[in-house]
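Q: A reviewer asked whether we had any structural model of the full assembly, not just the individual parts. We don't, so I'm hoping you can provide one. Inputs are below.
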Amino acid sequence: MEETLFRKQSRVQFLIGYAILTFFFLVFPFFTPYKGLVEDIIIWTLFAVSFNLAFGFTGMVSLAHGVFFGVSAYTVGMLSIFWTRSVVTIPIGIATGTLTGFIVGYVSLKRARIDVHRALRLAYLVLISIAASRVALYIFLSPLGKYSGAEMGLLGFPNSPLRFVGDLQLDATSRLQTFLIVGIVALLMIAWLHRMASSPAGMIMKAIRENEMRVSFLGYNTFRFKLLIYVLSAFVASVAGCLYLLRSGFISTDPFDFTFTSELVVICVLGGRNAFFGPLIGTLIFLTLKDLISSYTASWSLVLAVVLIFSVLYLPNGLASPIFSIPDVFLKWMKKERPSREESSPQLN
Amino acid sequence: MHVLIFTQLINGLVSGVLITLIAIGVALTFGLLKVVNLSHAAIYTLGAYIGLTVFQVCGNFWIGMILAALIAGSVGVLFERLCIRHAYQYPVLGFLITFALLMGLTQAIRIIWGPGNQLAPQPAYLMKVIYLGFIPVSSYRLFAILVATCIMAGMWILISKTNIGLIVRASLDNKAMVDSFGINSSLIFTFIFGLGSAIAGVCGVLGSPIFGLFPDVGTQMLVLCFVVVVMGGLGSIRGAMLAGPIIGVVISFTALVSAGFSDAVIFILMAGILLIRPTGFLGDRL
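A: Here is a predicted structure for the entire assembly that you could use as a starting point for your response.
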């Protein structure tokens, strides 16, 4: 798994990339017949990018991110149905999701210390996150079943516009508002995460993934750093949960199942774990394929399994690295083209 | 009420022993290969369905068990040789591959045998109630605990008394040293993987009348297995043998309170044990 550290990216490439992203997030949803799919891709991209910060960059395999997603969506939904129809519920929901992330992260990372074998660290993280998803499933099905709608899922959310300041209202039924909110929030969040991943902090994340012991020898408190990244990605997962609730107006207990989060793992592996925008490619391919294949056959997960095995065995860096190297190759080709012409022209003369 | 408590105790012990038997496969592969083997669950389900088919075709429970062991074992060997072998160096990749295998095999089972619940095979001569003193116990459960104990004793003899067991224990301790003696440890790995899978297949046939028979039963058991393995100490077989019955009894008693409650309780128990004693009951090496 070779990759160049300190690789300089040209400003033009950066701007063009963000222009495409902005177009896709803010303008594209209005002009496509597949509005639901595109909105799903945007929300899942945000979710997968934040998950990849923990999974691909720092090397923490957590299957509990669906829990944070679900907890924040449920909190917002339940509070706005049973308490107050105001925008206040959204920060409360995000805070609840993040707090859940902190608790799960603290318990699992406290166990996965440096002096533990690498495989054991992985096992502890995976197992405690599965445990967290089971406990959350129990809590939302049984003690909170009266409010959360139990197996039926949370119904009745989209009929209630949320009060903002004065006469301003956040209306989840309005297509225009949801599109703009989802697009802008996702874009800002992704830009923020990208800034962080390309800063020295991103370097420490990758260093922890490669060899945590040496990072701690350099004087970094790896436990606190990993917890920070975990809570951060839990925070973004909570935001994605809120966006999902606003878009679809419905949340069920599906996210608490750990297979929900394992789809994220597949997305990250498919797109590329080492590249920040790998999950973007992964989500695009994954959700489109899922939509296409599910309409032909019910055995979608068989295809998924085959794709996952082949991408793990033969394409460990994902599809992102060949796709993102296209502009580089193109630029190099452009640069090579000019001198060859100048060289060839004197020969003709 | 007393009768109910004793019955639940015995039922818990039976399911605990069966879970332990499945968990031993997980513990062995984890201790030896350092791979979190999620595909074990699908192999359990495969064994259960093979038992069902054989029982429907020839009506013999024992042939079903033997065939399930053989086929599950060979599928395990195939998985190890083709896929998992490539990921020993990278725990994350190993986890991903076994997860993909779990998903694929479960879906294949769903295609072949259908997604619904099936009536699990049970020989007619075991559908009786036996009274232990005043406690009524299903004779099938007694039979299951007997077979499970025999397999466990066989495993114990294999691991602690034979040459193969010696090599396995040595590879658990120091793989490079075993290699340097000229012993092909990769063959041993494949053997252990196949053995664990074969036992999972037998467990599938034995456990399906108790735990039910549907394509996702393996995943459900796997989660319990992991709790057992973690509580006993990751990679420790004796620890799993101690933790399994405890988990089984805890599940059957909390199920008296509420059905979903037992899931939450065992996981909180696991998290608590990990916080207080990170190595589990008997795991001393980390």
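A: Points you may want to mention in the reply: The domain at 2-276 of chain B is CATH 1.10.3470 (ABC transporter involved in vitamin B12 uptake, BtuC). Strands of chain B lie at 129-132, 135-138.
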